[in-house]
Please model this.
Amino acid sequence: MHTTSENPVARVIWEGSIPIQFIWDPTETQGRILEPYFVEVPRCSYLSLITSQIRRDFAAKRLGFTSDEGEMWFDYQGIPLKWHYPIGLLFDIHALQAKSINKETMLPLPWRVTVHCQNFPGEKLIKNPTLKSCQDYFMSMIKEADYLRNGSTKKVMNMSKSDQTQLWEGLWSKSYEQFWGMNQKLVSNDGTMARSLPIRIYLPENCPIIQDLVSPLDEQGQPRTLRQILHAAVPDLFPLVDVDVGSSSPVASVLIHGIKPSLETDATWAAQTMAYPDNFLHLVVVIE
Amino acid sequence: MSSSGTPSSESPPPTAPQDPALNPTTTEPTGPPASPATVIANHKRKDTSKVIVRFRAIGNAPIMKQNVFKITASNKFFAVIQFLRKELNYQHSDPLFLYVNSAFSPAPDEIVNNLYKCFNTDGKLIVNYCTSPAWG
Model:
């Protein structure tokens, strides 16, 4: 029915995963050190999707603790992790991007994430990190992306309720076929050119996210490249041409799903193939 | 949320505000490129320019007499939600749902300026609000 299985890049991205070591906040376990919980998590997944299995582990180990009533939240090196962001994006921002700024050389794997069940940081994170909220934000992102491509959300709204649910269910059950069976029509825009590409750019140190209207074609009618888009957003970090290739190395590059793509990549292809399941191409800028 | 981010309720100006971010000519490089540290510091600086937001009630949501406001562009959408709740005198527990262009519900941490740049209609960001979920 669909040609989704013919897309090896999308499949490799779908299968990308990160080993995470979940550590219990010792102040919440009455000083007792609990064994960490190790799990390999899909990059495309969300923390809210694995909360219940972490809770089960906690319940099995806690031996008399009663602190699992509150909302579960996570931090890395003291920075609360946004539960409505995909895990791979969180890792690229908080581990890889920060590493480039701090000039660290060690790859932070497994990723050591601290688990909390108390003192939810309501001023830093969106409240109510339930599975249902996560699904709502996920669908909102897909609609926002659709609006950028089409100037309306007709493509998503014309999907049946069960087809819409299939996107989330596919993510939840880690089924590439189920998810991409639906997602392909959205990201390819049914074969018509998008008005604008759903792209977000993340600069280091928690700078405001950059999102703007980005047409798939440049002024010459040529497919716009990642470099052109990054140049328009942050010209000082991304010159249009690599001046004197060899003599000066680029000051910045960009991560998508943990890898550095060529900046000459066609942005439309990247948006269709390398977007997260939320339909946005998330570009994480790293300083070289 | 800083106090400078509080939306103001004065009447809208006759024309759209001059947002330097929307004027591409100001981004032309004029010398050697700035260092990454400078670029990051510049992006972190709080922009105090404002954009126009028009609220539209949906369904049985209460209608506002004055529904056009100038809101600080660098604010998060959360500030828009808080502002509307205050205008409507809604308690924290009262359900209120906000949408852009009757289409999607931005996350509270999205930047107002990004929403304005991408989704404004004739220089206004249209925010619909209702007391029960609409549009999926």
